[in-house]
Amino acid sequence: MPPTGEPQRGQLEVGHGAPTGNPETGSRALDSSGGRGAVAGVPTRAWVAWAAGALTYVVAIFHRGSLGVAGTMAVDRLGIDATLLSLFSAVPLGVFAATQIPVGLLVDRYGPRKLLTLSLMVMAGGQAMVAGGTSFAAVLAGRALLGCGDAMVMLSVLRLIAAWFPAARAPVLAQVTVVVGTAGGLAAAPPLSAALRAFGWEPVFFSVALATSCLMVAVWLGVRDAPPDALRSGRSGSPGETLRTALAEAWRQPATRVGLWLMFTVHFPVQVFVLLWGFPFLTQAQGLSATTASYVTAVPLVVTMALGPVFGVISGRRPHWRIPLVLVIVGATSVMWGLVLLWPGAHTPLPVLFLLAIVLGLGNPAAVFGLDIARSGSPMHRVGAATGIANIGGYTAALLAMMLIGVTLDRAHATSADPGVADFRLALATQFLLQALGVVLLLRLLRRRRAGSAGSGPSPVCVSDT
Length: 466
Known about the structure:
Layout: H1 44-64, H2 71-78, H3 82-98, H4 100-110, H5 112-132, H6 136-151, H7 153-164, H8 170-199, H9 201-222, H10 228-233, H11 243-252, H12 254-266, H13 268-285, H14 290-317, H15 322-341, H16 350-361, H17 363-376, H18 383-412, H19 421-428, H20 431-455
Helix pairs in contact: 1-5, 1-6, 1-7, 1-8, 1-9, 3-6, 3-18, 4-5, 4-18, 5-6, 5-7, 5-9, 7-8, 7-18, 8-9, 8-14, 8-17, 11-18, 12-17, 12-18, 12-20, 13-14, 13-18, 14-16, 14-17, 15-16, 15-17, 17-18, 18-19
C-alpha cells in the first residue's frame, strides 16, 4: 500500500504523456513504467546512479566554497581589495541563476549522465583557471565556469531521482542530496584550508582540478539516465521539438509556475543572510565579534542538514501541506526580521539573533518543495526544464534582494562614515517588499487555478492528495 499522499494505481489514468493532478500540491498521476510507480524495491543500479549524482553535488558544493577558505591568500596573490574579492562569490551565483533554464532544457534533451559528466569537465577547467590565474580577470573567469558547472548538477540529480525512484521517495532523496552536499562541503573546508597553508595555491587547486576530472570516469560508468524499460517505452518529447518549444510547454504547466513563485518567496532570505549581508549586519550593526557572527551565520546550514529529510517526508506523504507550511515559514521569517529590526536600543540580544538564524534556515528545505511541485507536476521529458524554471525563482529573488539592500545602504548613510544600525535596519527592511510580492503572486496563481478547476467541472483523472 503506498504511503499517504501517493495515488493508488487504480485511481489513475495517464494519457499522451501529459501531467495530471493538482498543481498546488504537485501531486500527479503516475504509472509503473520506468520505475515511477510504487514498487516493492529499488534496483541497485538506481542507488548507484543516485550516489554518483550525489557525489557530484558534494564536489559542486566544495568548488562553490573553495575560495572562501582562501580569501586572504587571494587578496595577497591578486592584489585586490574586499570589494573585488566579494565578486568571486557573486559572479558564480549570477551565472548559476542565469543558466538554470538552459541547463534544464539540456538535461531533458541529452540526459543527466552527459550533463553530470560535462559539469565535472567544466568545474575541473574552471578550477584549473583559478589555480593558474595570476590576474583578477583570469580567476574571475574560472569562478564563472565553476558556477556554470555547478548549475548542471542538482537539476541532473533531480532528473535521475524522477526516473529511477517511486514518486513517494523522490522528495526525501532530493532533501538528502542537499544534506549530503552541504555536509560534504562543510567537511571539506578544514582540510582544504590546511592544505593551502602547507602546499600553497597552485599545487592545491591544480590537484583539486585533477581529482574532479578523474571523477568524470566514475560518473560516466555509474549513471544511467533511466531504467531500460523506461527508455524502450519512448516517453519523450516530440522528435522535432525545439528548445524554445520545450521551454514554452514547460512554462505552461501550472506546477512549474507554482514552484517558481514558491521558491521566489521562501528561499531568498536565507541566501541573503548566509551569502552576503548577514555577516556585515551582525558585526557592524549588532557589534558581534567575527567568530560569534560566523557561528550565527552557520546556523541555517545546520538547520538545513537536520530538518531536510523531515521536510522530504512531509513533501512525499503530505503534499497538501507544502503550500501552507511555506506560508507559515514566510510569515515567521517576516515576524523575526520585524522583531530584530524594531528591537529597542542599538543591539538585539544574541538569543534573538540565533532564533532569527534558525527560522531563516527553514527556508532552505522549504524551497525544495518548489522543485518537488515542478517535478511531480511534469511529464518525464519536461522535468529538467520545469525544475530549472522553478529553481531560478529563488536565485533571482536573492540577487534582487542583495542589490536592493546594497543600494539602500549606500543611499542611507553618509559617504564619509560607515553604515550604522539605523542604516542597516532600513536596508534590510526592503526584503519585506520582495516577500510581499512573492506571496501575492503565489496566492494569485493558486486562486486562478482553483477558479479554473471549478469552472471546468470534474476532472477525468482522479488524484488523491490524502
